[in-house]
Write a structure and sequence with these properties.
The chain is of the alpha+beta class. The chain has five helices and three strands. 53% of the residues lie in helices and 12% in strands. Helix 2 crosses helix 4. This is Helix-turn-helix domain-containing protein. One of its GO terms (molecular function) is DNA binding.
């Protein structure tokens, strides 16, 4: 199952790290506790829209940009999940480990899903 809060946290963490900022700096600017921001970044807490606005302000990031990046990642994850479930027998599907998708290439006869350290080819039946 794809968790929106996990994708949101991943994008927030990457944005913060791209800026070379610490959790402490962003939590102070956003007026959010360090522990809570950490839990949001790890996808353990569901952030309210007010909290997201505060974090985005602290990161000098438009909320629309944040949500666009989350939406793009969600689309890739859904495509990867769909491709995996089409080729894996039903009893084995719950045993699959989630893979962080970096890109998806589709050809008429197959779909290539690239994870950070590997590529998996899924051939259409």
């Amino acid at each position: 199952m794809i968790l929106l809060r996990r994708l949101l946290g991943d994008v927030l963490r990457r944005q913060r790290q791209r800026q070379g900022r610490t959790l402490r700096e962003v939590s102070s600017s956003a007026r959010v506790s360090l522990g809570y921001l950490s839990e949001v970044e790890r996808g353990q807490k569901e952030a309210s829209s007010e909290l997201l606005a505060s974090i985005c302000d602290a990161l000098d990031l438009r909320m629309s940009e944040l949500l666009r990046e989350v939406s793009d990642e969600l689309a890739l994850a859904e495509l990867a999940q769909s491709a995996a479930s089409d080729t894996v027998p039903a009893p084995m599907r719950p045993m699959l480990n989630p893979v962080r998708v970096t890109s998806v290439t589709s050809r008429p006869d197959s779909v290539t899903i690239k994870a950070p350290a590997e590529a998996v080819d899924v051939v259409a039946a």
